[in-house]
Amino acid sequence: MANYMIAPSILSANFARLGEEVDQVLKSGADIVHFDVMDNHYVPNLTIGPLVCEALRKHGVKAPIDVHLMVKPVDRIIPDFAQAGATYITFHPEASEHIDRTLGLIRDSGCKSGLVFNPATPLDHLRYVMDKIDMILLMSVNPGFGGQKFITGVLDKLREAKALIKASGREIRLEIDGGVKVDNIKQIAEAGADTFVAGSAIFNAAKPTDPNRYDSVLKALRDELAKVK
Fold first, then answer.
1. For the chain, what is the domain count?
2. Distance between CA atoms of 50 and 192, rounded to whole angstroms?
3. Mind listing the pLDDT tens digit for each residue in 19-37?
4. What is the CATH number of the domain that holds 72?
5. Facing residues of 88 across strands?
6. Among this protein's residues, is 108 annotated catalytic?
7. Domain of 75?
8. CA dihedral defined by 83, 79, 179, 56, rounded to 10 degrees?
């Protein structure tokens, strides 16, 4: 079986007790902490910045932190997230004037780099920078808000991205974000994804008073992935 990784998006977590939420979801079997960083400019919402990333590291979170920048321009904020403890930093090509330079900035800051593609954004940029990326993130909803429905047309795009990764011969993770849940994660994995961002499907599926509240949903997601041939 592929090295599948589940990345809960803290956008759907309870921010009043974020450290506890992240601790619990990692204890229940999640692999990566996913940050949705929105600036109310590139996307119509405003979320979190580097201070939250730094706070989780100081809280004791050791897992990889995957920072998805939905901000424009991106270069100014990258060193701040790197210093705050980010592991991956991904951005949208539309948000950078010089994509190659921005990818280099991420790596020079000590992080793994990646590009993010909205549902209607073609993958053309990848042809020129495959040697500079560690992750490709495909949006399966239009960015800006959690809880949206999965856009099925992105499945073909996943297959296209997977073919590009295979042809490159490089170890590049293929991440999907938007509408991922128990009843479609197997289909998404079969299309090529190996890293799965899930927000409301995880954080809204449990009773807040249950000390093991995320065990069942993480197990259900893993069980579906185990069925992938």
1. 1
2. 31
3. 999 999 999 999 999 999 9
4. 3.20.20.70
5. 66, 112
6. no
7. 5-226
8. 20
CA 197, 181, 165, 152 torsion-angle sign: negative
- Residues in the chain, how many? 229
Distances (CA, A) of 106 to 11, 15, 85: 23, 27, 12
The residue among 52, 67, 54 whose CA lies nearest residue 18 is 52
Q: Say which of 39, 66, 134, 177 is annotated catalytic.
A: 177
Question: Where are the strands (E) in 31-140, listed by range?
Answer: 33-38, 65-70, 88-91, 112-117, 135-139
Told to judge if 124 belongs to the known catalytic residues of this protein, a careful annotator would answer no
- The sheet with strand 135-139 has its strands ordered as 5-8, 195-198, 173-177, 135-139, 112-117, 88-91, 65-70, 33-38
pLDDT tens profile 35-63: 999 999 999 889 999 999 999 999 999 99
- Choose among 43, 31, 182, 192: nearest CA to 118: 43
Bridge partners for 139 per DSSP? 177
| Nearest alpha-carbon partner for 120 in 156, 148, 164 | 156
Q: Which among 36, 39, 134, 194 is annotated as catalytic?
A: 36
| Residue 106 to residue 214: CA distance in whole angstroms | 32
